Amino acid sequence: MGSRKSVSIEGLKIGGGAPVRVESMLKTRLTDIAGGAEETAKLAAAGCELARVALPEQSLAAPFAELIKKSPLPLMADIHFDHRLALAALGAGCRAIRINPGNMSGSAGLAEVTAAAKDLGAVIRIGANGGSLNNAQLEKTDGDRGAALVLAVEEQLKMLLENKFEDIIISAKSSSVEETARANAILANRWPFPLHIGITEAGCGNSGIVKGAVGIGLMLAQGIGDTIRVSLTSPGAEEVETGYNILQALGLRSRGWQLVSCPTCGRRRIEVAALVEKLRAIIPPTANKGMTIAVMGCEVNGPKEASGADFGVAGSPNGFIVFKKGAFLCRGEMEDFEKIIREQIVIY
């Protein structure tokens, strides 16, 4: 899974066999340091491992330095248009920067940035974006946007390598699943550097989650990707939760216990959704890492269908039963649900 090479950002290893990392990006502007510090704390609590921060102006370098000191997780400066902003971010104490090859391609400026990054032991992410492709890149690829993403990454990558800089993450993202998956498949085949993957501007709500999950899941299932961000028009903690759900569905990482529940039908003996919420109140989402717990509505979908679950609950004519790996453990009435669950499942 993933790249042959690895990089380290403040001790966080990315690539080279490390777990697939889960990222987000601060929604709070750098003009609000208290809000930014609160948001980084929430992201860290949700399991975020790296957060990108937009640095659009030189005047924001000082508050960025303050935020870096307050943040419980590593930060990456998101830089566009002006290489001097990258230098300001490095000067503020940031040890990871993202540069956009669609709007920042000057070789002289990149030479300054790579020299400073090398001196400070910082990591550079080359982040090509479908919305920032320039006319020259599109003309060279006859309008093929997937190929233009690859070209954008490789143009800047070669400049960094010419400056003997190799602490690099590469990224090619678009709002198109097909373009993004194709571009990343090419890059993963050609280059050994860690890949950051995602579907940019995926949207919000269910449609955004589905689009992001399909694109990221498609790439991860092919062994492509070392770090992910689910780009949603939602709080960052929701991006992080969705990211872990994608990794858990693919069997790549687990932050807590995994739920299996039936979709319900007219046979149900219990209200599954309500019981799931009761179960979540008893067992925190980050507890019992790696455990699978099933909630099934009736005896048809009960122990047999969920026999792979470590523990399960199924509706019965007079309440519910609890089973382990398909084997019956006990039965109970709904008023005793919490007591019985705590007796049968050790929470850790």
TrEMBL record:
Protein residues bound to [4Fe-4S] cluster: C262, C265, C298, E305
Pfam families named in the record: GcpE, GcpE_C
Domain IspG TIM-barrel: 5-243
EC nos: 1.17.7.3
Lineage of origin: Bacteria, Thermotogati, Synergistota, Synergistia, Synergistales
Cofactor: [4Fe-4S] cluster
Catalytic activity: (2E)-4-hydroxy-3-methylbut-2-enyl diphosphate + oxidized [flavodoxin] + H2O + 2 H(+) = 2-C-methyl-D-erythritol 2,4-cyclic diphosphate + reduced [flavodoxin]
Job of this protein: Converts 2C-methyl-D-erythritol 2,4-cyclodiphosphate (ME-2,4cPP) into 1-hydroxy-2-methyl-2-(E)-butenyl 4-diphosphate.
Enzyme class: oxidoreductase
UniProtKB keywords: 4Fe-4S, Iron, Iron-sulfur, Isoprene biosynthesis, Metal-binding, Oxidoreductase
Pathway(s) where this gene product acts: Isoprenoid biosynthesis; isopentenyl diphosphate biosynthesis via DXP pathway; isopentenyl diphosphate from 1-deoxy-D-xylulose 5-phosphate: step 5/6
Gene3D superfamilies: Dihydropteroate synthase-like (3.20.20.20), Sulfite Reductase Hemoprotein, domain 1 (3.30.413.10)
Domain IspG C-terminal: 258-339
NCBIfam families, per database record: ispG_gcpE (TIGR00612)
Keyword Iron-sulfur: yes
InterPro entries for the chain: Dihydropteroate_synth-like_sf (IPR011005), IspG_bac-typ (IPR004588), IspG_C (IPR058579), IspG_TIM (IPR058578), NO2/SO3_Rdtase_4Fe4S_sf (IPR045854)
Protein name (Swiss-Prot/TrEMBL): 4-hydroxy-3-methylbut-2-en-1-yl diphosphate synthase (flavodoxin)
Sequence similarity: Belongs to the IspG family.
Record bears the keyword 4Fe-4S: yes
Gene Ontology biological process: isopentenyl diphosphate biosynthetic process, methylerythritol 4-phosphate pathway; terpenoid biosynthetic process
Native species: Cloacibacillus porcorum
GO molecular function, one term: 4 iron, 4 sulfur cluster binding
Gene (UniProt): ispG
